[in-house]
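Recall the central idea of this unit: under ordinary conditions, the amino acid sequence of a chain determines the structure it adopts. In this exercise we apply that idea directly, starting from the sequence alone.
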Amino acid sequence: MNIKSTVNDEYQDYVIYSRLAKREKNSVKRNILEKLSNQEYEHYKFWKSFLDENYEPKINSFIILTISLLRLLFGTTFSLKFLERHEEKVISSYEKFLNVIPESKRDKLKEILEDEKSHEKTLMSQLEGNFVKYFGYVVLGLADAIVEISGVHAGFLGVTSSTLIAGIAGLVVGVSASIAMGSAAFLQAKQTVGMKPFTSAISTGLSYLGAAALLAFPYFLTEIMIIAFIASILIAILMTGYFTFYSVVLFERKFFGEFAQNVGLILLTALASYLFGDFLGRELGIHAAYNKITVT
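Accordingly, the structure predicted from this sequence is:
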């Protein structure tokens, strides 16, 4: 165990928690952040006692900036979970060090270990009171919209070369599907203790509608179908990366495997929809009819 590295890490966490606390407007969250900040400072002083008193801790400005950026993009709870993602390793290294340090300092280290172990409980209690509680409904709306609307656009890519028709079709499906998804979420939440049906419905419906609108947007900017489709797929992948990254940090899963699965599902759905749309376009004479109208 590297004492200097531990001192630096504890001091850096103290700085991060302090800055987050100063920027937090919610009093409950601010109190939690201040408590964590005070704990980290006490930990820092303990580990620094093993070094020369003139030792100045070093902090990584890039990490501090990253946590601040994550707070803006994903919220306070997410940034805390991201900061604490290696907590188990830290606790394990502290427990091993417990038998090495002088007996006079063991009680303090045991106290520090209790603080570290309580971080997770504190964070989980915080999760129950904010957006994360309804995160599953938001993901449900986003994921369904990304797959379904991408499929609609891919299907129209096989049927017609009109970006306007494809864009409008995506919006029409998006509005009707968002209402259906919101209604389903409302009924599901009524069967779940502690969930608010109206909030669940709004979370699901609005996330679906918002995703559908973003995916349809490129089709109103260009008349070239393939360019609009590629732009829409890229937006779908970016949105997938956003909610996948959020979920893997909150629930401690691996990013790349889950992200690859989600993107693969989008692309497979788009391919199947395109092939089916192209088949209908040829069999029903839609291609020829549309080309005739365009030429005329």
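DSSP finds twelve helices and no strands in the chain.
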